[in-house]
Design brief:
Blueprint: H1 2-32, H2 39-57, E1 60-69, E2 75-81, H3 82-87, H4 89-96, H5 98-101, H6 103-120, H7 130-152, E3 168-170, H8 171-174, E4 183-185, H9 186-208, H10 210-220, H11 222-227, H12 232-253, H13 264-279, H14 284-301, H15 304-309, H16 313-328
Helix pairs in contact: 1-9, 1-12, 1-13, 1-14, 2-6, 2-7, 2-12, 2-13, 6-12, 9-10, 10-12, 13-14, 13-16, 14-16
GO molecular function, one term: transmembrane transporter activity
Keywords: Amino-acid transport, Cell membrane, Membrane, Transmembrane, Transmembrane helix, Transport
Family: Belongs to the binding-protein-dependent transport system permease family. LivHM subfamily.
Length: 342
Amino acid sequence: MEVFLLQLLNGLDKGGAYAMIALGLTLIFGTLGVVNFAHGALFMLGAFCAVTFNALVSMQQVTLHPTETTAWGTPVEIKTPYVELWFGDFGRFLVEFSVPVSILLAVPVMLLIGLAMERGLIRHFYKRPHIEQILVTFGLAIVLQEIVKIFYGANPIPQSAPPSVDQALDIGGLLGFPPGEIVYPYWRLIYFLFSAVVIGAVFAFLRYTTFGMVVRAGMADRETVTLLGINIDRRFTIVFALAAIVAGLAGLMYTPILSPDYHMGMDFLVISFVVVVVGGMGSLPGAVAAGFLLGILQSFASLNEVKQIFPGIDQIILYLVAVVVLLVRPRGLMGQKGVMET
């Protein structure tokens, strides 16, 4: 039971990342009909928003201690972040909580990046074949990751969770198990809850707001909505930017779990497309359900007991599930009939 609960929790936080990226991919495909292979790069850019914010607030003033010296006889250096000098305790808060606070930077940055991508490139490929969309967006993803590599280097850049949540929660003790049997990092639990809130907010926005209702109507029948005098293209542009924000926030909050590097977008891109295919192209609930399902399956497949029976199963389980689903139900678990189906 202890192992089951731990692997379930691992699957849920990993599935949260998969679901948020796949949700953005499905939004773009459902509204614009574009297969966006640059979506993983948006996940990466969100992560580097956290890296950039942390670097800014961690800039330090270096002074020499008037009396203390090192073993070599040189004065001891005192390093104090400028924000702490300027803002006191609030500055210290910014340094310690740089990852969650960097959301304030990431939202406008990812909004502008999403708008620039859609207006500057994607709009010219709306009615082009999917293979051309894949090629141009994949090329864009490579360009973006190389730009990040130039400015930030090729090595991963670790990011710390806030000290107050950089511990582990004794979940077993809360459930009546012996203390210390089931412990799980606070930040992974926070990430799962964060992903649930973001996904819920997107669904609520699309379902309960006038803007969202028009977008859903445009996804179902674009021509009729246009004939009613509604500029659906402008709304779809905003949806593209919304998808970019969701992907960016997914990457940003994942940085304490996985140190950001320039290639992380490609790693998550492949998995997210598997998630979308399994859930069903164009199906938002399918993308979310498949994200959590595949995250949990991958977590259980990584157990040593399972790998002893099926060596390497944790590396291929997602693709095996995708093959089975496509053979049995080509449209995906919740996909609409005729969408990406022959």
